Input
Amino acid sequence: MRSSVSRKVALAAWMALAGAAIAQQQPATTKSAPKPAAPKAPAQQGPSGVVAIPESNGKGARSAIPERQTLLRTMQRVSVNFQETPLENALDFLRTVTQADLEIMWADDDNSEGLAKDTPITLKVENLTALRVLELILERADTKERPGATGSTWQMSDTGAMQVGPRERLNKYKRTEVYDIADLLLETPNYTDAPELDLQQALQASQQGGGGGQSPFSESGGEDPERRPLGERADELINLLTSLVEEDQWESNGGNGGTIRRFQKALIVKAPDYMHRALNGYKYWPSSSTNVSSAKGRRYVSLSVDTAVSDVGEIVQYPITVPGGGG
Output
């Protein structure tokens, strides 16, 4: 009995010593203090107004396409309150808040077609994208300074900057694009006199053990109706586009913005970027994030941010060592 108790005591002591030895071999782990939360960006005081900067302002978004990078920066939502603020101060404030590359087309001694820096702007909006605020500012500037002109808008340049100014000035920056319209010119035939199926005759033939070499279809009909010529269908499409998209800017309508020609089943368009955007959008921006609206007879194309065009930053690759198989 005593020997059994002694063995149990000795076993317990041995396990305690073994646990202490293992604990000494393992390095001590310390809990790192949690990182302090990043302070929220405070609201910034602007000229005659306040713009509230949201927590996610898009400045950290990165893209390999400069044009998309600029658009991502203008997708942050802001609130502004401008009271008779000079146009130059209002646009400079948007540039500072978004950190976007804005190239403003000002009127100067070399360019009579441009925006007037001292045009007063009165605008109060909340929780709109900076891009939409820019469009509203341009609309108010046109109403006061350029009532008889064709209006101002924005477009993307080859370097990724956003050019802002009157359409007459933006029309100097043109490029040529080829648009495939084969799917739009396809005309599905409508067989108005198709052959008819005589179901009773087909059943009688099957009951008699064969078809007797006679077709169940009637011999009348089945002809392909006459289709409109390809050129006529293409001209109809061109007339539709030039009447709906920037109608005043096409040379065929008396403008100086763009030209559109047909070659076989494609359209060759030479126009500034804002006209190409209205025709086909941007390849690097999903069509689901493009909203088309109209105001005072004009057509506006607005863009919204989408996860499909977002890039995940701050990802660093680290080598990882894992044990191999033990055979």
Observations:
- The chain is about 30% helix and 20% strand.
